[in-house]
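ok trying this again, last paste got cut off
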Amino acid sequence: MPKQIAALVAVLATLLLGTLILAPRASADEPLFPGGSTGYDVSFPQCSLPLPSQPYAFAIVGVTGGRPFTTNPCLATQYQWALKSGRPPGLYVNTKSPVGMNAEEALTGPAGNCLPTDEACKADNFGYKLALHAVAHAKAQNVTAGSWWLDIETMNTWSADTAMNARVIASAIRFLQNEGKLVGIYSSPQQWIEIAGSYQPGLPVWVAMAPNAAAAPGYCTREFAGGEVHLVQYIVNNFDVNYACRLVDRVPQPIGPAGSTVLVMPDGGCLNMRATPGLSGRISACLATGTRLTLLPDALVNADGFHWHRVTTGTTSGWVVSVYIQPVTSTTPTPAPTPTPIATPLPTPTPVPTPSGTFAAPPRFGAAGQSLVVFVGGTVDQLEAATSAAGASGAWIQESSGAYHLLIPGGPAFLKVPIVARFPSGFAAATAVMLTKQG
């Protein structure tokens, strides 16, 4: 597609989709996702679980079974549950590139019969057909939606060529929009850059995944893919809870005035200081928790889905992500109040067991061979042993940046090295893990 036409399509899509949060149900002033409210997303991992009781402000249901061209066997049942929110449910679709499983789907389609070496042709066909398959399954189940979300995660298989990945995504978007669907993107800044590079479709964004409810509003500034953040996901027990961003949540605020002192508070490891704002900036230092920094007078910069402050240690200056620093005061700082969810009780919290290297409950594998479980805490070796004992062939672990790591029980030692490096102390608290099982 010529660049001029592509740009026009992107502009028109942005104008159309800018009304997503204001899409009416029964009246023009009732939003689809009321700002400050919370709802759930569910799919095949929850097929065997009792779903949360009412009230909840909204719900989103997975159409696929973890990969494109698969189906969620509980779609119809979960959709009926989602309708009880009183708002049109959303739907989401897993995506990947045309490599490995189902790659043959890319050889034919609206772009024509592709030569095996024509990656662009295959990407266009594959994106179109994965969206077509999902819409056809939804129609067969008499399921309609207020919004459709493309799930873009490193957990699925992608090409090393981000331009070709972007073509897959763009083709899926094009199909859904031609069907009259309101489309959004589910991912995280780091995963999006790794998969789609600089592609900017400018659609509403659903961020995966905040560590908890208190942190969720702060993730509303983590824009990527050229779109505003509308939803932020976090886990409570076995369910994904989603916070709907308010306008005020999307406005980044400086941590403090120039010259004030802040403390480094990363959520694991150390905090990277970079020479320029953005994830591609050269790392000039790795700052330990508790390091004191001084804010410099440079303006807050938004890059790669994060807001960056320029700081100095006294000897080294650079840019750090604002969510990992906090001001130093004469007294213990009082956290800003978390917005009260609108008519949305969360599941009753389950007491977190003492880390024992086991899963909180036995895994229940669905038709796609996947099971979402909670690892109660322990070392990487203990997680590997628990995964093996469960009969799983792999365990996907997601870190706070949104990146996934695959732990393979009994696999080559070099595959476990980066996981141990990322989680040197293991997992001190309950951690969500997606188990996969072959065969």
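PB: full thing came through this time. The radius of gyration is 22 Å.
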